[in-house]
Amino acid sequence: MLISPWIGRWHRIAGMRIKLTRWLSFLAAPFFISISAAAAAECPGNPHALGTSRTIVVDPREHGRIGTMNYLETLPLVDKEVVLTFDDGPLPPYTDKILDILASECVHATYFIVGRMAKAYPERVRRAYQEGHTIGTHSMNHPFPFRGQGLEKAKTEIEGGIAATAAALGDPTEVAPFFRFPGLGRTDPVEDYLGARGLMIWSADFPADDWRRISADEIVRRALRRLEAKGKGVLLLHDIHPATVLALPRILAQLKARGYRIVHVVPATPDRPKTPTTIEAWLLHPRPKLAATLITIGDVRNPDVDRLMKMSAAELCSLKPPRREPPIKVAGRKHPRRPHVAQMPAPKPDVHAEPQ
């Protein structure tokens, strides 16, 4: 009986999947660049605009939590793709100016609206939607810390924010099932409620810290430094601060100069199917699986076949093949010294076994 063929097959399949994902990303990059160039060329009054390279359609019930600031998964982006998000608005005149900047570059973003702000300035919410941006929600009153609200108060905040945003738009179907926790203050019970409600929870991959008392120069520096460190991802900004208004044109100019592309995100509907993706695409940087060590039972001293068959793949991979040593040349001796052989690891307690 051989263990090595099974492990080798598992390793080859894993390697093929990783290589395939990387090749697909590599082959897709020129395609997305060409789309970006076309989108920029179609931007009225700005043939050199950054533009929006593509739109991806996501199903909140399949991938309900994204953004590596809180979760394992993020959006299925390829390298040098960025999703822009804006929280806490609308608030004039800053929301208006940011919408003007995005329109001048033909860039689409995702807004996370605070309900009481939508009630105060519904025309800004409508403008953002009419100009092609995605409208998500961010609670009714943005209580902070949100994680201290408790489940029932959190439900009231979530539903109130959705209702107020829907009222501002005039059509509940125009509100995307996207929600971001105020201050990213997640809790397990509220996450479970949002999931049951069919809402996709958005964290982010990196912030620009524009809510802090820092200059526009510093906002630009932090946004670009963190993006370069991750290579792609969801950028968290706010449309209620004057410093963000000053920083945004420079961020967009640097994105274009450095070869980054803007991606727009919308929810799947019966008439708009989700974008096909792979499981690995939802990870910021898929990690290659550890290489399996090829070993046969014959390589192990005094093998316990029954125990070998019960071992996990990780335990099997921990077995070391014999170390092949060069022959020792001894006068009058025709055979090399026998090599060392691997020892079986000490038996571990079976944590799945029932108590005696």
Task: Give a brief rundown of this model.
The chain is α/β, with parallel strands linked by helices and 356 residues long. 38% of the residues lie in helices and 12% in strands.
Structural summary, described in words:
- By secondary structure, this protein is of the alpha/beta class.
- It folds into two domains: 1-42 and 290-320, no CATH class; 50-282, TIM Barrel (Alpha-Beta Barrel).
- It contains ten helices and ten strands.
- Strands 1, 3, 4, 5, 8, 9 and 10 form a seven-stranded parallel beta sheet that branches. It has a three-stranded parallel beta sheet with strand order 2-7-6, covered by helices on one side.
- Helix 2 packs parallel to helix 8, helix 4 (122-130) crosses helix 5 and helix 7 (216-230) packs across helix 8.
- The chain is globular and about 75 Å long.
- The two termini are 32 Å apart.
- Mean pLDDT is 82; it is low at 1-38, 339-344 and 346-356.
Secondary structure elements and their pairing?
Blueprint: H1 4-41, E1 54-58, E2 65-66, E3 81-87, H2 94-104, E4 110-113, H3 115-120, H4 122-130, E5 134-137, H5 151-169, E6 178-179, H6 188-196, E7 200-202, E8 206-207, H7 216-230, E9 233-238, H8 242-257, E10 261-267, H9 305-310, H10 313-318
Parallel strand pairs: 1-10, 2-7, 3-4, 3-9, 3-10, 4-5, 6-7, 8-9
Helix pairs in contact: 2-8, 4-5, 7-8
CATH homologous superfamily caption of the largest domain: Glycoside hydrolase/deacetylase
What general outline do the C-alpha atoms trace? globular
Average predicted local confidence, pLDDT:
82
Give the CATH level 1 class of the largest domain: Alpha Beta
